[in-house]
Amino acid sequence: MLLPSIFGENLFDDWMDFPKMEFPDIDRKLYGKHASNMMKTDVHEHDNAYEMDIDLPGFKKEEIDLSLDNGYLIVSAAKGIDKESKDNKGKLIRQERYSGSMQRSFYIGDNVTEDEIKAKFENGVLRLNIPKKEAKKVPEKKLIAIEG
Question: How far is CA 109 from CA 114, 119, 130, 131, in A?
Fold first, then answer.
């Protein structure tokens, strides 16, 4: 079936894509088409703690920062490539490695402090051990009698 040239291969494909919105993907500049695979995290629950394994391949321990802010654990990683280094490898015809940063946050609760979180970085995996703590009990809602 022939369709007018204003449509693509299939008339319905064009109609189904109308709400598509494209936003610039900053992480794509850092890791190309594999950006969505970065900072993949596994969370394991134990009796008294949570264990998190975060993939950060290619990063060094010095390039990773952990902080705790209002109950959120923030994992940041920044990487720079020295563009001034000269070598005898020849003319660069394709470069897929860039410098940049990424960040991810996890809500762990207001009762956990920085001292209680244990972190270890080995072979591109950041392993965090976060203790389980019960949230402070909120007093039950009590009704107040109204006179009159």
Answer: 12, 17, 10, 10
Tell me the whole-structure pTM to 2 decimals: 0.62
Residue 31, in any domain of the structure: no
Number of residues assigned to the chain:
148
- CA 32 distance to own-chain centroid: 16
Q: Beta strand 72-79 with 100-107: parallel, antiparallel or unpaired?
A: antiparallel
CATH, residue 101: 2.60.40.790
Distance between CA atoms of residues 71 and 45, nearest Å: 18
| Structural domain range at position 75 | 38-81+97-134
Tell me how far apart the alpha carbons of residues 125 and 56 are, in angstroms, rounded to a whole number: 6
* Mean per-residue pLDDT of the chain: 76
Residue 1's pLDDT is 47
